[in-house]
Amino acid sequence: KRYLPERVLALFGKNPVEERTAAETADPEGASGFDDESFAEAVEEITSRHERAVDPESFLEDSGAIEPDGDDDRLVDEFADAAHDRMVAYREESIGIETLSTLFDTEPEDIEELDREYPAYRVGIRVRKWPSEGARIADVASHEVLTGYTDEWADLPLEQRLDMLAWLRGFHEACPVCDGETRFSDDVIESCCGQFRVTTIACVDCGERLREFDPTKVGNREDLKGITP
Known about the structure:
Helix content is 36%, strand content 18%. The strands form three sheets. A four-stranded antiparallel sheet has the order 1-6-5-4, with helices on one face. The chain is globular, with a radius of gyration of 17 Å.
């Protein structure tokens, strides 16, 4: 829940990178200085996250969310149907701050909706955002289904849960907003969330983008496996 300074990341062999969102890219909003106590707390927090982390693909398979499909994976039908039912409900029922607080594992008062063209929220010192309303609906729906599938979901580190939700988003064959077909496109276009170029998984009917990718890291749809947005 902090933007960690370079000296903390270095302890775990990490290079400073731009923070990620629930989904797509997050805005780092100014790292603050750390005193010794804060530094120790940050190290303890990272250590705890590493200890609780799991292999994402194995976890989602064991939980009944995905299953092997040739050289790739697919959503298990029961999981896809349950998530779709939640998505349909959210077409009529707005996603409130209380719901997002469970997704981000924080208190409702720590979340502030931002005035942007895409869904975006300030959560503590972080900005979390999605490329579309459909992406936000998909993440909340999958989160709620996984919460009901396994108690272990809530024990995973927050950032790993958000990465998994973003990954699952790419498996939905029907658009969360209109039920149109979703498809990967290798056309390089401007991101919904900023001035940079991306490739997408999007609805062919209404254009809702479920995921955006750095085109230099994606050669074809099979390359999307394991890539974090």
